[in-house]
Amino acid sequence: MKSCVGEENWVDSRTVYIGHKEPPAGTEAYIQQRFPDNRIVSSKYTFWNFIPKNMFEQFRRVANFYFLIIFLVQLIIDTPTSPVTSGLPLFFVITVTAIKQGYEDWLRHKADNSVNQCPVHVVQHGKVVRKQSRKLRVGDVVLVKEDETFPCDLILLSSSRDDGTCFVTTASLDGESSHKTYYAVQDTKAYNTEKEVDSIHATIECEQPQPDLYKFVGRISIYMDNEPVARPLGSENLLLRGATLKNTEYIYAVAIYTGMETKMALNYQSKSQKRSAVEKSMNAYLVVYLCILIGKAFINTVLKYVWQADPNRDEPWYNERTETERQRHIVIRAFTDFLAFMVLFNYIIPVSMYVTVEMQKFLGSYFIMWDDEMFDEELGERAVVNTSDLNEELGQVEYVFTDKTGTLTENNMEFIECCVDGHVYCRVTQCWLSTQEHEELFFRALCLCHTVQVKEEETVDGIKHGIHQGKSTSFYISSSPDEVALVEGMKRLGFTYLRLKDSHMEILNREDEIERFELLEVLTFDSVRRRMSVIVRANTGELYLFCKGADSSIFPRVISGKVEQVRAREGLRTLCVAYRPLSSEQYQQVCHLLSEAKLALQDRDKRLAEAYDLIETDLILLGATAVEDRLQEKAADTIESLHKAGMKVWVLTGDKMETAAATCYASKLFRRNTQILELTTKRTEEQSLHDVLFDLSRTVLRHDKSLKKCDFTDFGLIIDGATLSAVMRPGQEDSNSGNYKEIFLEICRNCSAVLCCRMAPLQKAQIVKLIKASKEHPITLAIGDGANDVSMILEAHVGIGIMGKEGRQAVRNSDYAIPKFKHLKKMLLVHGHYYYIRISELVQYFFYKNVCFIFPQFLYQFFCGFSQQPLYDTAYLTLYNISFTSLPILLYSLIEQHINMDILKKDPSLYRDIAKNSLLRWPIFIYWTILGVYDAIVMFFGAYFLFDNTTFTSNGQMFGNWTFGTLVFTVLVFTVTFKLALDTHYWTWINHFVIWGSLIFFVVFSLLWGGIIWPFLNYQRMYYVFMQMLSSGPAWLSIILLITAGLLPDVVKKVIWRALWPTTTERIQVGTHTHIIEDYGSAKTTAAVFVFWKNYCKTKDRWVLL
Length: 1106
Known about the structure:
Blueprint: E1 13-17, H1 50-58, H2 62-76, H3 84-116, E2 119-124, E3 127-132, E4 141-145, E5 153-159, E6 165-169, H4 171-174, E7 179-183, H5 194-198, E8 202-207, E9 218-224, E10 227-233, E11 238-239, E12 244-246, E13 250-257, H6 263-266, H7 277-307, H8 311-314, H9 323-327, H10 330-345, H11 351-369, E14 384-385, E15 399-402, E16 409-420, E17 423-426, H12 437-448, E18 453-456, E19 474-477, H13 481-492, E20 496-501, E21 504-508, E22 514-523, E23 531-537, E24 543-549, H14 551-554, E25 558-560, E26 573-582, H15 584-599, H16 604-615, E27 619-631, H17 635-644, E28 648-652, H18 657-666, E29 674-679, H19 681-686, H20 689-705, E30 714-720, H21 721-728, H22 740-749, E31 753-757, H23 761-772, E32 780-784, H24 790-795, E33 798-802, H25 809-813, E34 816-818, H26 823-860, H27 874-884, H28 886-895, H29 901-906, H30 922-947, H31 961-983, H32 989-1011, H33 1025-1030, H34 1033-1060, H35 1064-1081, H36 1086-1098
Parallel strand pairs: 15-28, 15-32, 25-27, 28-31, 29-30, 30-31, 32-33, 33-34
Antiparallel strand pairs: 1-8, 2-3, 2-4, 4-13, 5-11, 5-13, 6-7, 6-12, 8-9, 9-10, 14-34, 16-17, 16-27, 18-19, 20-21, 21-22, 22-23, 23-24, 24-26, 26-27
Helix pairs in contact: 1-3, 2-3, 3-11, 7-10, 7-26, 11-26, 11-28, 15-16, 17-26, 20-22, 26-28, 26-30, 26-31, 28-32, 30-31, 30-34, 31-34
């Protein structure tokens, strides 16, 4: 605690007065500081800023802002169409979106309130009072009871345990569910009642809030007889918000960081509006169409004045101008005409597309929530959609960043086997080959060399834990899940650890005899030594040092034993066990070394490490154990499917490297043939970071260049948090260091899997941000189950929370939540695939049908003297996108299944067909636009040449311009609807009802609109127009011919493309249809067909993938 000596090394500090008591007069100045309350805010809006903030975000969309301008223009100047045609759809879009986003944020407010209003116990005037969590203040003394969560960041003052320690789980913070030990301030640990705690007179000086979970620097000054006694404070004294008190009846602690200043809150990323790749493509297309629109309006404006250069055309006798119009400047008239043309052609920008997209996303999200395959019976939970704006992004994921503990694994270490002198004993072993001295010693060593505690309790979290069946229920807890797994494994093999009582450890051996060992010293585990030891005295008086640790830390200290017999198995974590008998003289030397190190005030940790190093020598190897952090069901299968789908999976965890690597092997993230590249602190201590990075870079690039000459090598990278910090920090000392980030990214690109261990929450977010910002700009997904995963969940394009054992912070801040990791497979490969296919067709189809709709209007201006005369009636202009063509594409975008979902799950490679926004690329967009222009030309000029025949009707009557427009509009509605029908692969009765029903609605509406004289209209130009058109035989023939001519090129193009350059998806579609047709041929009756289909759906496994 060097930095506690003075404040010279501190950037800034705060002073906290315990119990809000002023320091004694003459000691130090009392400076009252203002701190935030304990309120947590994860919501985005407030009641007051919802409307302006939401409006600002919505009008950032190109289409919304454009239609606002058009609406204002229609209000200001005289335009060919009514302001209602633009204002009503815009108002509908804004309102629907605001309601949806407001509802989602209200749910976040509701979740925040449940946390902020949670009751906490505060000591005031010697009594315990209840407060709401949000009212907690810095300096309050808090009483926390067992299994309660800490409401803010606290300094431990005292606990119910005599030694002033307490046990805490920090699973929701760093992903580790093991029990950790924290220590009370030495001078206050004896204060165990409210009155005693209230009598404490002290101040705390500490650093200002910062997000590092593992760092804390401070000191406490306790006033005794008005003289302050200073004691250092470190991370071992700091209890973090979100952690849970375990195996300790109660504690008293003082609040030092509250609300959004707690370390948990500082590790949250600020919320930002996430936008999908599809939405970005839509905005880009809208800009293009806006340029086309401006070009059209400009061309028509210029041609209008060219046309009106002749005075007879400029001011004909039947349309003379007023004196005011004559005096208006030509520039103003030209600008007004330009705006009028903009309004006339503005329907090329499909504002209704945004309404349809919002409805599609909102309604489509229910398919995830209703999916029975994503329902977990154990938890009783279904998948949850918190943000429906990103549904299609699930089909575009390229990188998956996953937490380990509780996400890939069940947070449940399990003993698998042990090896003693070459003999392997599994967890189910019931008999013994022989009783050997080393075997007995090995099992006793594992029962003694640990920090496990035994807790008597009936149930914990609803689950019963027992050691002896039929007896009082007890269970083990420890700072390491490995230790619990090993002690439970030994119990199954005949040696049961009972308890630690009066410094004596009790063991029940195979003969049901209780053995007692006096615990003399514990040499605690640390990540540098990677081992721990205990010194015990047996009843016979013999002294033993038992040591266990990673093989790399034990083997160099072993002088005898069958080292070559100890093997590590893939996916299992191996710990070696060794011992050393001690004489009384040796024990005295050990005690002397340890006491000297423990009494040191300077460099205590360093001196203890040196003492441990001297003591843990000359060991005799007993054997090894293998434990497994059991994977979640189908976790390995899910990761394998994600790999086949072309996604790169990264594991980001706060856990140790050995444990995390073992999980990666078990989950098949790393395989046997994977060449592991290490970028860790251990390696950078041996070489400079610069050299390590360039060595790794040369390795992967050399392999990349020689791929064709040699077999494929699979690379996996392991990096730890400290090295990542060095990589992310720009090199300043060495000008030749180059850009480490770029080198690191290049290495990662050539690795099929990456493991990042010992990651702080913000580092997880930094990794995600680094990949997001790389030159490929890949779509990222982050998945986790704890509060330590919230930052990366918010940073990634798509964030998914797991409903695990580590609280609901991740679920509350995620875009989607699923019960188990295995459900990610269906969410991406099926739901994501479908969502992307559907919305891609929706976007392209909307632009296509609006080009078909408005391009004839553009052509019509060449035949009406550029007079801004509408080709279509106002009712048709308003209802085309709202009623006549909206429902079929909305339904298509909700239920279309181009391939059966079982095939999508069995063949993950189909996901590659839609990767990198492949269906919304510019060539496809241009094709749809050209197709729309072609259909518009066919409709307009086809009708024009047919109209050129003056005997178009049977009685020789000529048609007018409204009949011409109605004919074009009729062909238009039928063509775009049939186009969608041709693109539909999954037909149900709903499709038939909506597609044919929308056409029938159009016909019925046209008959009513033109068949009745409507009294509220100031014109009757459409009266009898539609009936007159349908009474003409040539009109019927032209409708059929023009629809056929419009659809034929697209059909021919698809047939040729599928025959010559079919995609994997199209091959499967052909194979599927072939099977259906073959089996259908044997079904002679309707009943037979029904029976066939029913059986067929049950035996989808026999579908052949071409």
